[in-house]
Amino acid sequence: xxxxxxxxxxPKVGTTxxxxxxALAAKxxxxxxxxxxxxxxxxxxxIDAVSVAMQSGHNQYPLMAGNPRLRxxxxxxxxxxxxxxxxxxxxxxITSGATQAILSAILAVVRAGDEVIVLEPCYDSYMPNIxxxxxxxxxxxxxxxxxxxxxxxxAKAITPKTRAIIVNTPHNPSGRTxxxxxxxxxxxxxxxxxxxxxxxxxxxxxxxxxKPHESAVCVPSLRDRTFVISSFGKTFHVTGWKxxxxxxxxxxxAEFRKVHQYTxxxxxxAMQEGIASYLADPKPYLExxxxxQAKRDxxxxxxxxxxxxxxxxxxxxxxxxxxxxxxxxxxxxxxxCAEWMTREIGVxxxxxxxxxxxxxxxxxxxxxxxxxxxxxxxxxxxxxxLV
Length: 387
Ligand code: PMP
Ligand code: GLN
Hints:
The protein is of the alpha/beta class. The protein folds into 2 domains: 17-36 and 286-383, Aspartate Aminotransferase, domain 1; 44-280, Aspartate Aminotransferase, domain 2 (3-Layer(aba) Sandwich). Helices cover 37% and strands 14% of the residues. The chain is built from 14 helices and 13 strands. It has helices at residues 17-27, 44-55, 68-82, 97-109, 126-132, 151-157, 180-190, 232-235, 250-261, 269-278, 283-286, 288-303, 334-345, 373-383; strands at residues 31-32, 92-95, 115-120, 136-141, 162-168, 196-200, 226-231, 244-247, 309-310, 318-322, 347-348, 350-351, 364-368. It has a 7-stranded mixed β-sheet with strand order 2-8-7-6-5-3-4, sandwiched between helices. The chain has a 4-stranded antiparallel β-sheet with strand order 9-10-13-12. It has a two-stranded parallel ribbon with strand order 1-11. Strand 5, helix 7 (180-190) and strand 6 form a beta-alpha-beta unit. Helix 2 (44-55) crosses helix 10, helix 3 packs across helix 10 and helix 12 runs parallel beside helix 14. It is globular and about 60 Å long. The model has no long low-confidence stretch (mean pLDDT 97). The protein binds 4'-deoxy-4'-aminopyridoxal-5'-phosphate and glutamine. 4'-deoxy-4'-aminopyridoxal-5'-phosphate binds next to helix 4.
């Protein structure tokens, strides 16, 4: 008997741009400023904390919602930063990374035929996740050139079928951040509608120039309808560990956990216990803005002596650059430009067009500056050969 035909549920999905560009970077021995991950190690104290957790028996299933001590610490940390309390028992869940948290939130909220507004460019998992839930992704572009939210376009995109909106701040790929005014404007637009907010705040501790990270819940009325999602992978330089958090009011958390329970059940125990211990000291995350700001400043200042034009970067570990003034590059589309730079000068960026669902070209590429200073300096040396 022949195998049954498997009709794809995700016809538009192929290999992610991150994997493609990392493979190309390896092939050409290019400096990889493409895929977003640090090329330096985490704090040895964090490794010690996880080792101690393993050696002291944290090796079986933890509670479905996550290690209670970790949830307490996440609750205390959130309250100390934002002045908003989430109950560790009923309102905080530990996940296998933010990607799983986003999928589970979408599966919990989105019903067949529901529309979800997605602000493009965006992290590449959102749209396929919505489709898997049977929903319809409604892309609304951030303003071209500045990546500011276009609230008129958001308001126009709302229909009776709109079930949720996904916001990401600090933003991947642009490096822009949302202010309290942005959140208030969104809150006003959706106030009289049954619309949930999925707020992807994985870069919460990478906001620069003395500004605070404005979480969705900086507007009190948004708390009741919002899932706030974060990732220790970003905060502690351990993207491979895949431990995330979701803060949401109890009724939303209850539905979230129904999905979480039957997708992963729980996240791995030793990492959770180790992170719980490590979180006793707030210094590592409080020092993170300065740590990454120094890298942004080093890279952006050096880019100024190249023909690339850096765009505003207020947060995250990404900065975008425009290449329309570079004669060698300006006739290439963004994907061609990223491939050309990898091959010809040995530096790998990510094309911003990859973060859109329909062809959108702005002569803009994204660099990840979560790299050792020596890596950034080598990249700049190579970029300087551009004419
Ligand atoms: N959201 C955004 C905006 C991201 O850039 C990433 C990083 N890959 C994630 C979510 C996923 O985080 P995690 O690795 O914890 O799944
Ligand atoms: N979020 C990372 C980035 O934008 C990549 C994560 C992944 O490879 N899926 O580069």
